[in-house]
Every structure is written in structure tokens, then in C-alpha cells.
Amino acid sequence: MNATVTILEKIKSYQTIMIHRHQSPDPDALGSQGGLAEILKTTFPNKQIFCIGGPVNDLDYLLTMDEVSDEMYKGALVISTDTANESRVSGSQYQLGKEIIKIDHHPNDEPYGDFSWINTEASSTSEMIYDFYEAHQSELKMTDAAAKLLYAGIIGDTGRFLYPATTSHTLWVASKLRDYDFDASALTRKMDEITVKVARMSGYVTENLIIDENGAAMILLSQEILDKFDMVDSETPALISVPGKIETVKAWGIFVAQPEGHYRVRLRSKGPVINQIAKRYRGGGHPLASGANAKDLEEVKEVFNEIKQVVKDFY
């Protein structure tokens, strides 16, 4: 049976549906979570449908979370969107539901839940949610609010259609979403805005980026540097694309100090596959966009050495 058919049947059979996404959400996490919720709320007005998770940081203009109690999960269906690893599901209450459905576009390296729909060919989970709607549009209802959220998720995960995951189908989905009534230009501008702090830190990244002869690059953001620029880890995703704007950079890592002493590792590439590196350092993700963790500065060096090797082997 087609996965979307199974998911729709499950949704129909539950009165309460709890939709979760990953920690430290990006636009696709919130877009797929909120977009699905808007579609279901409009289609099934008598059902109880909630969006649950931790802080959304500066993305609250897209979506805010609902307050729910443990009791509300009794006999509920839980849907997790855009979350490859169970440990990254935001909101520990997700385990209290009767069944869990996983909808995701990341490689299914760590399966979880009772049923999964995985499409690694999709640019984003938001694209998948539109495909879910499209497959059952005789039964489901799209709204302007849902379209805005899904569009935000797609342009977020494709870098405004820059990244290789963008396909002709992605552009077709985006074109269908643009038919709905929301200000796509204003949304794109809002998503592209950065704070003065981030702008200044971007200058630091550009000035201090280490680039080897083959185009492997890295930047270490120590706690001292974060404090100097009055920034916290949740603000650093805005820096991810900065090294990639440099012509000679082919793949890069951004290493961000954490209060516990380890380093969050954000890996990106213009060609060399880097998700295998991420998997070796407690992480994972897409071939050209992944995340990991380095336990100390020695592991930071190890990760960078691996980036250098994959870039050297690729070119």
C-alpha cells in the first residue's frame, strides 16, 4: 500500500494528533510541522491537532508551539516530521502516544516509530507534505497559511533553490504553492535577514576561515568568541552559508563551542560527500549537508582532517 494512503488512514482513525519536529528547528522543520497541521485542522475540524516542541528561537514568525499535557497523549497519534534520529525529536512527550509515524527526507539510518514514510529524493519534508496533499487532494484541504509554511520550508532547505536537492518537481511544487494568497517576496526577505550580531560574526568567519590548498575549510567558534560577539549557538545557523560564498571553498565545517565542553559540528559541501564523516562523529544527515559532534579540540582536528581528505579525493 502506498505510504501516503496508510498515513491518511491512520490520521482518519485518530481523534487527537500530536505533530513534533526536531530540536533547534529550521524552516523545513517548522514548515512541514505547521503545514501538515494547517491542512489537517482545516480538513478535520473536529479533531484535536497540536504542534509540539521546544523553543523555535527567531523563527516564531513562522510558527509557535501549543501547550499540551501528558494526559492529552492518551490514545493519540504522534507524527514526527523532518527528524532523522529519535534522539532529536523535540518534546519528550512524543513517546506517550499510541502510535508514531515518521515523515522525513533524510537517510533512514536510525529508523523509529511504528510507520515511516521516507523520501530521500525530496528537497525537504515540506515538499513531501505537499505531495501528501496532492496525492489526496480530493479529501484534503490546502490553505493559504499551510502553503506559506510549506513554501518557507522548501526555500529554507534548498537555499532558495540553490542546493543540488532542488529538482524540477521541487520547482513545480513551489509554483503550485505560489498560487495561494501569501506574500512570498516578504517571506523570502524575512528569512534572508540577519541581525547586526550575525553580520559582525560573518565578518569574523570570513577573516578567520582556514582554507587548505584543495578548498577544505573550517572555522572554530570558541566560547570566548561567542561571548565577544554576544552570540549563542542557536544564532549560529545563519553563518552556515558564509564559507560557501567563497569561490575556492569546496567543503567546510563550522565548529561551535557548547556549554558542556564539546563542539557542535555543521558540515556543508559543494560536491564531496560529507555525511559519512558526520556518522563517524555522532551525527548524520544529507550527503552535502550534515551535522555532528566533536567531543574536544582533538576531535575537531580529526574532523577537519577528514574533510580535507574527502575534498582532496574528490577533485
UniProtKB/TrEMBL annotation:
Coiled-coil segments, which residues? Answer: none
Matching entries from Pfam families are given as: DHH (PF01368), DHHA1 (PF02272)
Residue limits of the DHHA1 domain? 236-312
User: Can you give the residue ranges of the DDH domain?
Assistant: 17-154
One of the record's GO molecular function terms: nucleic acid binding
- PANTHER family noted in UniProt: BIFUNCTIONAL OLIGORIBONUCLEASE AND PAP PHOSPHATASE NRNA
Under what name is this protein listed?
DHH family phosphoesterase
UniProt organism field: Vagococcus vulneris
